[in-house]
Amino acid sequence: MSKNRGVVYLGPDNVEVQNIADPAFIAPDGRKIEHGVILKVVSTNICGSDQHMVRGRTTAPEGLVLGHEITGEVIEKGADVEMLEVGDLVSVPFNVACGRCRTCKSQDTGVCLTVNPERAGGAYGYVDMGGWIGGQARYVMVPYADFNLLRFPDKDRAMAKIKDLTMLSDILPTGFHGAINAGVGVGSTVYVAGAGPVGLAAAASARILGAAVVMIGDFNPDRLAHAEKMGFVPIDLGKHDRLGEMVAEVTGDPEVDSAIDAVGFEARGHKGGEQPAIVLNQMMEVTRAAGSIGIPGLYVTEDPGAVDEAAKVGSLSLRFGLGWAKAQSFHTGQTPVIKYNRQLMQAILHDRLNIAEIVNAKIIPLDDAAEGYHAFDGGAAAKYVLDPHGDLAKAS
Ligand code: ZN
Ligand code: ZN
């Protein structure tokens, strides 16, 4: 009899919390492994990239256990795990990485070469990412545990900040990577596209990196109002489509030093229809010559629900000549979480980064996951954190 329960994808707009198998030290290809740990999941977040699957915008198979944003306590370890002990509280980077291949050795863990037979890069509970079982569940197995896991130095202090620390598994390092790649530094002017959780995490990252002003564009009035409350300058994209003009109203200049795309391929235009290239084209327009554009927003190689044939295979109508003429730099790809999570953990533990408040973390029981998915999809200005064992409710 299994004691595990998890969020299972059953088809477009349909997820359900079901009894699932207990985790085991077995890789997706059936190999027995000794380098993993079993975690009791303390917190696990719903992500915008989960929404792409749940909206039916990917080829995610029915029965997939979702969840790649995981924080947990080690309850069992394989014979080859040397640096972790039962009882340790750890943050799990969403990237599954082997720590042994060429890209892992250079800390490019978002594109590990060995954990996914289809392509570079693995993740838990995600379509085309190697078949690793997701962690929106009570228990989960994490492979290559010594390499992947970030152990919190003091369990009690960590539990006191757990709502913030839960953001280390993905969105905070993802936003930070966007800001670093956009070249944000002291005095930078920054535009972030998208006021969802990743956009807010990118904005917060830009601020701790020293940005002078951080603007966030969106259509959603609740998300814009929340961004403003957190000290960012809201840009209401519903007004008109001349973004440079709105930026100039804030800074006196229609261009910024750094731009961050936290929207991705399901981007919408001013008139409402989906335009997958619109944000990237706006970024080129609004970023200064020789400026940098960070693109943490997700773009895909297969999009069965796309608006046209080209976009179905990820081909977008980019005005690339503009970016070339302005000598801009573009930075794509998933964040390699381990490059940033330790520093960001310290910033949280020492009260430099109130990320839970900035992304408006909302804790809900695991069994309410479907409602969380629904509210988030409806544009709620919140980041939903699932609490599978009631540990978060107890901690706060
Ligand atoms: Zn995520
Ligand atoms: Zn690797």
Q: What small molecules does this complex bind?
A: zinc ion
Which structural class matches the secondary elements? alpha/beta
How many beta-strand runs?
17
Q: Averaged pLDDT, please? A: 95
Count up the helices. 16
Task: Specify Rg, calculated over alpha carbons.
Answer: 20 Å
Q: Which fold does the CATH topology of the largest domain refer to?
A: Quinone Oxidoreductase, Chain A, domain 1
What would you give as the CATH superfamily of the largest domain?
A: Medium-chain alcohol dehydrogenases, catalytic domain
Percentage of residues in strands = 15-25%
Uncertain segments are none
Characterize the structure shown:
This protein has 396 residues and is α/β, with parallel strands linked by helices. The protein has 2 domains: 222 residues, Alpha-Beta Complex (Quinone Oxidoreductase, Chain A, domain 1); 162 residues, NAD(P)-binding Rossmann-like Domain (Rossmann fold, 3-Layer(aba) Sandwich), CATH 3.40.50.720. 28% of the residues lie in helices and 22% in strands.
Task: Provide a compact summary of the structure.
The protein has 396 residues and is an alpha/beta fold. The chain has helices spanning 48-54, 102-105, 145-148, 155-160, 162-165, 171-181, 197-208, 221-229, 243-251, 278-286, 309-312, 320-325, 341-349, 355-358, 369-377, 391-395; strands spanning 4-11, 14-20, 37-45, 70-77, 89-92, 95-96, 122-123, 139-142, 150-151, 189-193, 213-218, 233-236, 256-261, 287-294, 329-331, 361-365, 383-387. Strand 16 (361-365), helix 15 and strand 17 (383-387) form a beta-alpha-beta unit.
